[in-house]
Structures are given as structure tokens and as C-alpha cells.
Design brief:
mainly beta, Jelly Rolls, 10-stranded antiparallel β-sheet, globular, signal, hydrolase activity, AL/BT2_dom
């Protein structure tokens, strides 16, 4: 097997293994974040609503999935929402499956068509004012093809109120595209996110490593009407909350699980 033939996911696994000098098999335990029955272990925050108000039953547990639905909405009215797991994490390997399905709310912004994601290193949702639209966080963005023949990769990086270091330089773009293929609506996709605190971040889609970057930190625009104490530009992000996104397109999430790597990772400078 030549270097060119080694799958990128395997390269990532080898790299992560090298960064875990104290890891043992006993520590490599996958923990489900969703019990398949309810979202009692999760916290809802939707724009224009107080933390904990699951407006319109946006997030619901059904058929062992967390579903995002809008059948109780009228005008979308920029009611961007996020469903946060109750516990923050720093170093971990997250796995989940998602599929875009159902309807898109036509009064939502056009960029939200077949668009969702998972946020990480997010601020605590209980620190968000009612009128804050996006959490200060980093996003592993999910997209599906638009049937226009144009590529639309998934597993991208977007950065509401944050920046990252990409290819050795601070990158202030809001989104950085991954190298993934384009996937269709109604197709289940496996996404993996390996987060090593404030150092290396890796995105994997269907077993392929599609994006790497490092040093997530607070900075930049997109987040609005936030508490200034929660957005200290230049502050390095080494931990935070994980959240599933709702921004106008119906989507399903399942098999959400995490391997906590806290205490096993030797972070890089």
C-alpha cells in the first residue's frame, strides 16, 4: 500500500492515536447522547424565545431520532434554533448520522435550504439573551445538493462569532468548504467530529477526512445582540457545548454518540 492509497480517515486515526499517548482500550467508550425517547438531556434555545422554550415543538424525539420540524410555524421570522446537550465537552470524538428530509420553510433565508449543522465549543445557551440569533461557537456545517449540477460539499466549517487557524494562518472567513462529495436529500450521512480542545479539529464524512483546522477562538461577526461578556475577541476556545441546528430545513439526527477523550489527549502547542 502506497501513501497515496492510504484512506484519509485512516491517516486521521493514526494522527489522533499519536496524540493520545495515555489512552487505553478501557477508556475508549462510546456514550450515547440521545436516549431515543425524549430530549430531556438537552436544552433548547430559539431566537426570539427564552432558553428552554421549544417553540412550535421544533425539536422532537420520534422513531429513535431527533427530528427538526416546522409544521407549527407560520412565518419563520428568523427563529433560528439550537438544541444543546446538557454537558460541555473539551476533547472528544463525536459521531452522528443526519439526513435532510421534508420541507424547507419558504420564509426562511434562501441560504438555509438543505442547510443545517452541529455546533461545538458553544457558549452556554443560558447565557444567551432572548434576541441573540446565533451562539458564539464553531459549526460543522451540513449541506445537501440542490439538483442544479453544482458541487455542494458537506462537513464544512462555519464560525459565528469565532475564527480558526487554517493552513497555518488565522482565517477570518465565515465558512471554509470541505473536500467532501455532494450528497442528496433523504440520504443518511455519517458525520464525525474530532475535537482536541483548543488544538486540532478534524471533520470526517462517511469515513473520509474532509477538513482539518486548529486553534478555535472568539472573534468576528455574524452573532448579534449578545451579552458582551460572552464575546471576548481573541479568547481561545478549549471547551463548550454541542448543539444540533435548526434554521429552516427539516432534518433528522440519529445515533448521536461521543467518546470523551478528556485526560487522554496531549494537546499540541
Amino acid at each position: 500500500m502506497t501513501g497515496k492509497n492510504i484512506p484519509r480517515a485512516l491517516v486521521t486515526l493514526l494522527l489522533v492515536t499519536l496524540l493520545f499517548p495515555h489512552s487505553t482500550r478501557a477508556q475508549e467508550k462510546w456514550i450515547p447522547l440521545f436516549n431515543g425517547k425524549d430530549i430531556n438531556d438537552w436544552i433548547v434555545k430559539i431566537h426570539h424565545h427564552e432558553t428552554g422554550d421549544n417553540f412550535g415543538n421544533t425539536f422532537r424525539a420520534q422513531d429513535n431520532m431527533i427530528q427538526v420540524r416546522y409544521d407549527q410555524y407560520g412565518d419563520f421570522n428568523e427563529q433560528f434554533g439550537h438544541l444543546y446537550y446538557k454537558t460541555p465537552f473539551s476533547c472528544y470524538h463525536l459521531k452522528l448520522e443526519y439526513r435532510f428530509t421534508g420541507q424547507w420553510v419558504k420564509t426562511a433565508p434562501s441560504y438555509t435550504l438543505l442547510n443545517s449543522g452541529v455546533m461545538y465549543h458553544s457558549q452556554d445557551p443560558r447565557t444567551m439573551p432572548k434576541e441573540q440569533d446565533w451562539p458564539v461557537s464553531v459549526e460543522m456545517q451540513f449541506l445537501a445538493g440542490l439538483d442544479d449540477g453544482q458541487p455542494r460539499p458537506t462537513g464544512n466549517m462555519c464560525s459565528p462569532g469565532t475564527h480558526v487557524v487554517y493552513q497555518g494562518k488565522l482565517d477570518t472567513r465565515h465558512c471554509i468548504n470541505s473536500s467532501s462529495k455532494t450528497y442528496d436529500k433523504d440520504e443518511w450521512i455519517q458525520a464525525e467530529l474530532i475535537v482536541l480542545g483548543d488544538s486540532l479539529i478534524t471533520h470526517i464524512i462517511n469515513g473520509d477526512t474532509v477538513l482539518r483546522y486548529s486553534k478555535p477562538q472568539i472573534g468576528g461577526p455574524v452573532v448579534n445582540r449578545y451579552d458582551p461578556e460572552q464575546k471576548q475577541d481573541g479568547k481561545v476556545l478549549s471547551s463548550g457545548y454541542i448543539a444540533l441546528q435548526s434554521e429552516g430545513q427539516e432534518i433528522d439526527f440519529r445515533n448521536i454518540r461521543i467518546m470523551n477523550l478528556e485526560g487522554t489527549v496531549k494537546q499540541q502547542p
